[in-house]
Amino acid sequence: MTAVRFRSTALMLLLLVLILAPRLPKLGQFVTPDERKWLARSANFAYARFLWPTPTLLAPFNGSTRA
Predict the structure, then answer these.
(1) What is the 3-state secondary structure (H, E, C) of 20-55?
(2) What does each of the 67 residues of the chain score in pLDDT, given as a tens digit?
(3) Partner of 35 for a Cys bridge, out of 23, 30, 57, 59, CB 3.0 to 4.6 A?
(4) Are residues 42 and 66 both part of a single domain?
(5) Does 36 share its domain with 24?
(6) Whole-prediction pTM value?
């Protein structure tokens, strides 16, 4: 393993630990007051995209619309 690859791997692991450290102790709890709504809306969006897979590249904005 080269030194550059070792450094990039170590940096990625460090970033992973820094990102997960605040979240891991509270995995079973909601972090923000609107997290339940956010999860429900995300699930509804994914469900709608599954039912009506319309191409979004035709619209001038990013989003899911049903024509």
Answers:
(1) HCCCHHHCCCCCCCCHHHHHHHHHHHHHHHHHCCCC
(2) 688 899 999 999 999 999 888 888 888 787 788 888 888 988 988 888 788 766 555 555 555 555 5
(3) 30
(4) yes
(5) no
(6) 0.42
